[in-house]
Every structure is written in structure tokens, then in C-alpha cells.
Amino acid sequence: MEFATRAIHFRQPTDPLTGAVTPPIYQTTTFEQVAPGEHRGFDYSRTNNPTRQRLEAVLADLEHGAHAAVFASGLAAEHAVLLAHLTPGTSIVVPHDLYGGTWRLLHKVFAPLGCRITRADFSDLDALGAAIDGTTRLVWLESPTNPRLQVYDIRAIAGLAHARRALVVVDNTFATPCFQQPLDLGADLVVHSVTKYLAGHSDVIQGAAIARDPAVFDQVKFLQNALGGVPSAFDCWLTLRGLKTLDLRMERHAGNARRIAETLAGHPRVRRVYYPGLATHPGHDIAAAQMTGFGGMVAFELEGTAAEASRFAASRRLFALAESLGSVRALISVPGLMTHASIPADVRRSMGLPETLIRLSPGIEHPRDLVADLVEGLDALTPTAAGRAHAACVGRAHAAC
Ligand SMILES: Cc1ncc(COP(=O)(O)O)c(C=O)c1O
User: CATH classification of 3-243, choosing from 3.40.50.2000, 3.40.640.10, 3.40.1390.10, 3.40.50.300?
Assistant: First the structure.
């Protein structure tokens, strides 16, 4: 069955008791036992819950995995994966471009516990190979990355890491399983901020970890219960509902992102556009080979000052200035001041993350409205010399017609 069909039908049959076509929410903390310690598969909802179990089965299926565990946030899922595989004296290798919360978790929680965090350029496989040593347990990447939409060759990286006995974790939040299945490309674990496209409506905070091999997954599952960072049954139900339209939503998100990226690329107030679907993107060929769509996110560097970037981001009518992404509603952010602010300024600069970088998460609104909103804001900025020349040139072209 195809992705769009599985997202609706897999493990979601009509309720045999009532005929309800939508599976019910098991909104309960505990379950009556037949005899002490003897139950029907569920004893307490932190440990397991039928609605959560259903969501985990669906996520495992959509990611082509065998096991999934969902958590109360993406960072809670990351925490469990890191704790399951890192011990004092071991190390993790990450790329320069990384979600700020992951950076904070690694440097402020795991580094003080005695874990080493090594940064490497994941587009240079020799450099990455050299960064993985005998202490490396995990090679961790996002692809596309947050916020600069860098794309890395997951299959090649998995080959490199496995030859050195390290596991590969891919944060698949930006691509979603609709466009990319990292486990098929050789990754050992996939993590998600379910909060984003999977739930999709800016109303659920949730995370997930998915794997095929029980040897890689079992400790993560143990920690789900032992640490207790689990989502409510209602939130799991909302995600199941969101997943049913993931395929449709991603198609529109990606179409909107492309239209926006192409428009921005031709605007004089835009210094650089980051979108893997543009042929000029350095990771375009890799993205075309390992993804079935280029995703719904776009980032760009404004030709102007940090103050102008902030003013632009705060003044859009349709793009809400807000953290997060992957919602039906368009969102805009300035990562250096928002989602990645927990990274010290000098490190941010070394990551290539200026405060003129703007991240866009187009919703599923009509592309014409989103493009118009952005162009209006860019045109309203004081024109630069280049912009004035461009406007004059466009003016002459119009006069000529
Ligand atoms: C790529 C990525 N991974 C993980 C997270 C963390 O997820 P959550 O906010 O659900 O904890 C985020 C949040 O923005 C993210 O963008």
C-alpha cells in the first residue's frame, strides 16, 4: 500500500465494538487487572496505553521501521536515545548545522556527564571519517538541517559510521517519512519532533524514536517508561489525526516552499536562498537521490542589517513570528535570536548562522498569498543600491512593453 493509504488505514480499523470509523481515545491512567500482575497488556499509561501503542505502530510503519516509542517532546525522545547510547568517555559526532535545542542538550547536559561532542563537516566524508574515532558511539545528523537546509548523503555517512562501529541517528523532522526514509538509507535510529509536520497543526508537543533492530531500540523503550517523558493519550490521538493528512499537507508545503524559494532567489534584497529543491543548492543532487520531495522549509539571508531582518520577520501579515515549524499556518523566525539562541553567538557565527538569516515554514495557504506577503515586506525595506538598479531595470522593461 502507498504512504497516503497506510497513514489512514494501517492499524486503524473500524472499532469492532461500536462501528466507530475513528479509533477511540483511551483516556485512562490505569487498567483493571484480572489478578495481581495479570492484565490484558496494559497496566499503567506511563508504561503503555492503547492509543499511544497505535500511534507507535503507525509511525514505525511510515518510517519503514519495526519499533517506535513516542515521547512528550522531540527533545525527550532525543534525551532517551542519547542516554541509551552514550556513556561517560564516549563521543558523538554532529554536523555544524544543528537544531539549537539539540546543541543545548548535548553541550549542557551530556558534555558535563563526560561525553565528548565533536563537530565535523558532514559534506566532506574524509573530514567526517577522521572525526569518528574509537570512542564514537553515535553519528547524529539532520537532513535537511535546521535552519540552513543542508543536505547530507545518509547512505554514505551510514557506511562510514558502521565501518567504525558507530550508530547513525537521523533527525527526520524536516523531511518527514513522506519524503525520506532514513532507515532504508542505512540509519539505525530516526528521531522526530512530532510537534512539527507529523502532528502538523501547532497544537501538540511530541517526539518519537524509531528503529528496526531491538538491540538499538530496547534501551530507548526502557527509558521511555523509566524516565517517564510520555505524551498523553489525547495528544497521541491528535497526532494520529494529523498523520492522516500528512501526504496531502507535505505536497502543498513543498509546492509553497518551491514557489517562495524561486521568488526569493530573484529578489535584490535577498543575498542567498537555502532550499534543496533549487538546482543551485549544493545538496540538490543528493536530495534528489535520497528524498522523494524537497520538503517544506526555506531559509534565506537578507541583503541588509540584522535590525531589518527582525523588522521584516515581525511585520508579515500571514507568516506568524513564532518558534516551531511544520504547521498548516505559515510561520517565520529569526533562528539566531529564537530557535538557536541557546547556542553562543561565536559558535553561531562559526556555524554560518547570521542574524540576517530568516527561516520560513510556509503553511498550506495559497502560494500566491504567501509569496505576495513576503515580496511586500521585502519591497518595503529601504532599497539598497542593487535594489534601486533592479527596480529601474524592471521599470524600463515595463516601459518597453
Ligand atoms: C529538527 C528538530 N529536532 C528536534 C526538535 C525538538 O523538538 P521539540 O520542540 O518537540 O522538543 C526541534 C524543535 O524545533 C527541531 O526543529
Answer: 3.40.640.10
